[in-house]
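Bug report (template v2)

What were you trying to do?
Predict the complex of my protein with shikimate-3-phosphate.

What happened?
Run completed; filing so the output is reviewed.

Input:
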Amino acid sequence: MADPAPSRRSALPTVARRGGPLAGAIRVPGDKSISHRALMLGALAIGRTEISGLLEGEDVLATAAALNALGASITRGGDGQWTVDGIGVGALAEPADLLDLGNSGTGARLLLGMLATHPITAFVTGDASLRRRPMGRVVEPLGRFGARFVSREGGRLPLAVSGAADPIPIVYRLPVPSAQVKSAVLLAGLNTPGATTVIERQPTRDHTERMLRHFGAAVSTEPEAGGGLRVTVEGFPEMTAAPIIVPGDPSSAAFPLVAALIVPGSEVTLEGVGINPTRTGLLDSLREMGADIAFLNEREEGGEPVADLRVRAGTLEGADIPAERAPRMIDEYPILAVAAACARGRTVMRGLAELRVKESDRLAAIAAGLDSCGVRVAVDGDTLTVEGSNWPEGGASIETQLDHRIAMAFLVLGLATRVPVSIDDAAPITTSFPGFIAMMNRLGAAIGEE
Ligand code: S3P
């Protein structure tokens, strides 16, 4: 299994240059959020779950290793199919060693939800990026079930969790719009008697709810008085193994998609991309900016809507992206900012506070990176403003700070700048998009070693 801690590898300095148009059809790797959930819920179901299209990125491999250490049996077949022999809700075994979730906030937070209501003790850690990220946002609600935690300041990893032997169900109002926190609470609710409820003011990605239903658990979603949603899961469900087809990750598709928009003359088709409405904020925003993106062959696979996206290059116009849209495109701001840098006029992106606690402080990383490439940017509180231009200057070397999306976003920018853009390390890209550089180059991009 791959080493889940990118900090232990040597850096891969990489450069992207302007070249000819991009053309062709590609299939991006499986959805990261859905892949984590398929492994976790498969582990909590009885029987053998077969998964096709699982993302074989480092984040997901780290989750698979952790679940194996907890007693599930996850294996990769020769055909790229994965099987999970589940052990059922309530049956996780105490792991003999640290659980290392590498770079993955989703892996760590959702797993803590599962552990919180199992009467075992586990020690959880991650790479330098994950150890900086706030875990208090899950430690706080999970403590209400009766779980006990010992952590570093601010709930940071490494931490120890002793799950509740007699968990108490909770009703929890999310203080931040976070699918990870919602999912951690719902997963804790599975091994808890009675009903566990999460109330979210702004809808966040709903893959956990969809997949729980797919495995036979009872989950209801109702509108909350005064706005938002109330999601309730019933404890002790009988979850049975069910096949999963993982759609292409819209957050990964975003990189070749924006590349095709900003490199003149390009036409690219992205096959089998998930278009769950809780994930399509970027597509809405780019269309408002004038992007030519067609949904072809719309269908449903394994409870998730999917389409082929045909993208044609064209002139983009600046736009005002409202704060309410942020949860539906939270991982896409680095690449939207790159599109904005190549658009005509000003783009304003509001409500970006959560970007400060991602794999890096993405608000700072985007602003510093664009500024060093000669793009006029301003950060005012949680609002980012980008002044677009035809062919930004480029020419900088970007510090990626163990952040896969910062790495990919600035390589895409380098395809449309006057001077090439380099990044100090492309290694973190394998977190979510193994094969990214080769796939981009097959489309006609010029990305290579420094
Ligand atoms: C994810 C939720 C989002 C997103 C992350 C994946 C998930 O995080 O940024 O990449 O799979 O639930 P938050 O819930 O912290 O916003």
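What did the reviewer find?
Residues 32-44 form the longest helix (13 residues). Residues 33, 106, 178-180, 183, 205, 330-331, 354 surround shikimate-3-phosphate (CB under 6 Å).
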